[in-house]
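Q: I'm writing up a methods section and want to include an example of the input and output format. Could you take the sequence below and give the corresponding predicted structure tokens, formatted cleanly so I can copy it straight into the document?
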Amino acid sequence: MSNSFILAAALLLAPALGAPAPAPQVTQPASFGPDSQISFQPQPSTTGYRQEYLENGYSSATYHGPYTGTPTTIGAAPGPTTLAASIGTLPPNPTATYYNTKGVPLNPMPAPYTPAGGLGTNGTLPRYMVESDFDFESIALGLYQEWIELDLFHDGLARFTDADFAAAGLDAEARSLIEFMADQETGHSTLLTNMLGERAPKECVYNYPYTTVREWVDFMQRVTRFGESGVWGFINHLDSREVGQLLAQSIATEARQQQIFRQMSGLTPMDVWFENGWPQSWSWTMLAPYISYCPENQTRLAWQNFPTLHILNNANINRYSPNDTAQDGSETVGPRIADPSISNNTGNCMHINATGFGCAPSIAHNKSEPLSFVGKKVLFQWEAPGQKVGPNNSYVTATTAGAPKFVGWSQQLNLTYSPLTVTGNNTGFTYQPEGFVYGNDGIINGTMAVMLTDLDLFVTPFNTSMLNPHIVALGLYQAG
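A: Here is the clean output for your methods example:
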């Protein structure tokens, strides 16, 4: 075996220099069977923040709450200089002309059974490290996401009792599955740490909005939505194809997690034909409000934080009649962008055993009354820029857009628009538009991004970030 092969393997499998791999947050057993004589004593966490071991056997961080200090740094991470206010639009790549009319290989094969073309197919030894500032900032954002999921999945297991879980329709086997998903995040955070190196972001302290199991699970299906979509949006723009390969193998797991949390929330597990990809600034806008503070000298991110768009009549997933959701925002547990639906509402669907109306955990549910529909009047209220958010309240929401005129709906392969009617100071409404991807596949469904824009700019899945300079505020819509 060559030394170069050993080096490449080491880059992939070993912790990055100066950045030890995160310790798994696994449940430590109090005994090892009825006849075991092996003693047990909880050990301190090595992830940066002390863990608390609860009577139910699960562990979680000792604090989940708001940041109360004064930030010492403000704003996104800057570069040495900024070359332009925005990136201009260019014509198609002049070399992108290949079209096969014969249905057979057109060019000489470099080896048997190996069609010509492809990237990273010439035998070069892979290097599983980021290759540009774009790569670093994108994978660092992904690591911030993995860290919160690692903590979040464990927290509910530790916070709620067996009786709480039973009331939400989740038994010990469901809790075991969630614990396994938490342990998956140990692997994901280790992988991304290794591909970043010594300046990989560390685990932080988080501030969660839920008070019940139902709200926790609902929050997790929202968090994994922006976690998954945020990666699909940048993965094929990475300079390092090797990093993209490994990232795809981790985000495929995240997609399964999102589906499972939808099932546990009583939602349809799959309601679209294609998953949607988001620019990094969208997912960072969703994630940042739930981070209280991070360790000293934490690596900061360069991405934008947009002002929050509140959907005042976002459907409450816990209602058997979602159209009875209040119109004033009171059926969301709080004002943050991805906060879940309240679960102590009247008209609750959790214990209704009627097809089309119940919402207990299930493999699948069909809704007799949909969470949203074409023509629904959707009410908005949006924040002004300049709000302090994120770790240590050290990031600031910002927009470069003009006055809002349109509502952008980003889902599946499409970004479609509807006109915004402004009714007052940072308030307005629109009507949910109709549109189809292929056949009868309606564009708008699932847990999806909506935004106010000053322009109905035409964008496609590979250049959605071109819309960022025109976004006034960003929100998360529960369409289905």
